[in-house]
Design a protein that fits this description.
This protein is α/β, with parallel strands linked by helices and 244 residues long. The protein has six helices and nine strands. The strands form three sheets. It has a four-stranded mixed β-sheet, covered by helices on one side.
Length: 244
């Protein structure tokens, strides 16, 4: 089986899942796509993508935590791992989470209905954040900016810094962002995604991910930009001392 993320969660790149699914189907290979970061953000339709399996996560679209969905085109393609009751066609026995299922169903309806408006609005916020960041920190790098991207994610590398220090300072400023870097034996390692993309190590360890949801507004972008100069100066000064 081939399994591909429809949208990468770190950089927002959209993978060509329709083409990949078609090639797998022609070769008789089952194809699964992880649509967790795609559904509700970009158009997602099983009519357009001939996948065998598709997964979504409820809390990414406003449903209760702990609920998700596995869409199975042919139920005979799945063998039960746990056997017992006949719930869910005998594939997954056990009492169903009815409140979660109802919440997920309603969240899916709303996410599908509001997808186009959501994408237009958050893309404008993302683009404005990127524009102002580059104006404020001219040597910053927007990772994967030339690739097709989902509208709600940007990944920015700020040379001369490290992501863990940046995260701490942004957190103290009340700004939530994230990093794909891993801390190993006290050293920051670059995200495996950025490494696979060929991003140089010095940029990989200095990359941050900003994402937008339905409640974000332009004032949030302004808050980030207002905090950036002081934070970047602090982290660069500290980094220069540590690397003497």
């Amino acid at each position: 089986m081939v399994s591909v993320m429809w949208v990468n969660n770190e950089v927002g790149v959209i993978q060509p899942v329709a083409r990949l699914a078609a090639r797998c189907r022609a070769a008789g290979v089952p194809f699964h796509t992880d649509a967790v970061q795609a559904f509700g953000k970009i158009p997602v339709s099983l009519r357009d993508v001939d996948c065998t399996f598709l997964t979504i996560s409820g809390h990414k679209i406003g449903a209760p935590k702990g609920i998700g969905a596995l869409v199975v085109r042919d139920r005979h393609a799945v063998e039960a791992i746990i056997h017992g009751g006949g719930q869910q066609f005998g594939i997954r026995p056990g009492t169903e989470n009815v409140p979660g299922i109802v919440g997920l169903g309603r969240a899916v309806e709303l996410a599908a209905a509001e997808q186009a408006e959501f994408a237009h609005r958050v893309a404008a916020l993302r683009d404005e954040l990127e524009r102002r960041l580059l104006a404020t920190v001219p040597d910053a790098v927007i990772n994967a900016w030339q690739a097709p991207r989902a509208p709600h994610v940007t990944n920015v590398a700020i040379p001369g810094t490290d992501s863990e220090a940046l995260l701490m300072h942004f957190d103290l400023a009340g700004i939530a962002c994230s990093s794909g870097s891993a801390c190993s034996t006290g050293a920051v390692e670059p995200s495996h995604v950025l490494t696979a993309m060929g991003v140089p190590r010095e940029l990989g360890v200095a990359a941050l991910r900003f994402s937008f949801g339905k409640d974000n507004v332009i004032e949030d972008v302004e808050a980030v930009i207002a905090a950036v100069p002081k934070i970047v100066d602090k982290v660069r000064a500290l980094s220069a001392v540590l690397h003497r």
